[in-house]
Request: fold
Amino acid sequence: MAPFHNFVEEFCRAIEQAGRFKNFAKYYFHNLLSEGANESILLELPRVFITRLDQILHLIEANEKGYVYQDIDQIKPLYLGDVLKKDAPATSVVIISDAGAARKTFDIKRLLNTIAFLKALNGYTSKYVWLNPCPKSYWQHTTAGEIARHVLMFSLDREGIYNAVNALRGQVYPLERPL
Reply:
């Protein structure tokens, strides 16, 4: 996220200063929002290289184990489960990723843990979107591209932000494989 750090901070500051939200909270995370998903279910997948978890999606359990941080330096941790219970039901959630798509890689364990987190989030609210600092053209054949099949993901640009806000307001966008 380092190349996008200043932009994302300015973006969050603009959202907060706009003052259109009853509640505004900002949390940071490193690599994954939750960790510890049951990796043994990956053995249920065929032995050929596969980038989709569709065959085992029903086996992935919601996971809210992990930490988010109140500060950018990630010194003040908060248990993710507590944050979800406190904030998610009463708010819209915007996840801004770390631009992992820029690496142009796929990591099935990262996908598994992210899906487990999204299932946990889904237990508290359906009002969430994901903003990715990389353009959509970078997502193909990456973990981000697979995550985007399950959650509304938009590029962190003018059009993407506009679409994300509309989605949070209730506009319907197609989703390939909702959770």
